[in-house]
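Lecture 7 notes: from sequence to structure.

We start with a single chain of 375 residues. Read the sequence below before looking at the structure.
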Amino acid sequence: MDLTTTSLHPALEPAELSGLALANRFAVAPMSRVSAAPDGVPTPEMAGYYAEFAEGGFGLVITEGIYPDSSYSQGYLNQPGLSTSEQVDGWREVTRRVHAAGRPIIAQLMHAGALSQGNPHRSERVGPSAVRPIGEMLTEYGGSGPWPTPRELAVAEIEEIVAGFAAAAVRAHDAGFDGVEIHGANGYLLDQFLTVYTNERTDSYGGPVANRIRLTAEVVAAVVAATPSDFVVGVRLSQTKVNDLDYRWPGGAHDAEIIFATLADTGIGYLHVASEGRNWLDTARLQGGHTITGLARRVSGLPVIANGGMHDPEQADRVLTDGHADLLSLGRGALANPDLPRRLADEAELTRFDRRMLEPAATLANARQWQTDQP
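Now the structure, written as tokens:
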């Protein structure tokens, strides 16, 4: 069935994202797979992994978090980067494979900050303040035990981080990506600046929410300025984190309005609101009857991607039909069903996600072994 014309489900209708024509409203969400070479170069196996989603009918593919520089940004061993020419060459094969299937692909740029648990470039961690992250490192990405306490970043170092994101975005364009998504979510560096209990700064990057979102806005503005006008630039935000599934922006809708309006003024093309480890229904509701994604649409005037349980056809329908979002991103639902849009169009049964796909590590090899073990 032609996914560009079917009317079986609103998620299968064509869409546009900041000038990108999309065959449908399903996007593959960023998912760390820790399967690059030790030097951060994407492998042929990764090219096949991303191509499978494009060939399976997803309208947009967003990569896993990619570290932008060769200093403090890397979060995991075997995480891919966009800081060297060799890494750019590796990504060219990924983008070529996805484009050959007729789909666009966006690179997510991620600085881990205090949540780094595997970085061969530096032994110490950095963050907005010298505050130890709560919880413990993530075993599925090779970590164990409590997080170390990071060193507080100096303003000059913050400026270097901004420049590093912009340079990586230029390299992403050279690698054939259709755009980049700045990772401001899930507890990583930019989100650490936004989060009250990890940001104790008293300068222009700390205190009120307008200051705490400043670094994300500076990064986005620098990326927009450094890349061509038709190169898509988006931002991913979340309230919850990989190490704190209960956190919410303390000012609720008031904070959200400031965050969304500030980022909209940078010239970005979309907002991606994530629900780390939670269903959209659990994290979207705000006081006053708003949903966080619906509020993002209203305040920013930008396309919004919603995340969290969007493999459920009824929820996906409701989110789109009721105006809560424009696109839907799928993580675990996509892992279990890399051809989910085609299955939905054909009214075929979906495969249920199995946690064993990520155990003992969230690697492509482990997922392949899980597939082999299925009856």
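Residues 239 and 248 are 5 Å apart (CA to CA). Keep this in mind for problem set 3.
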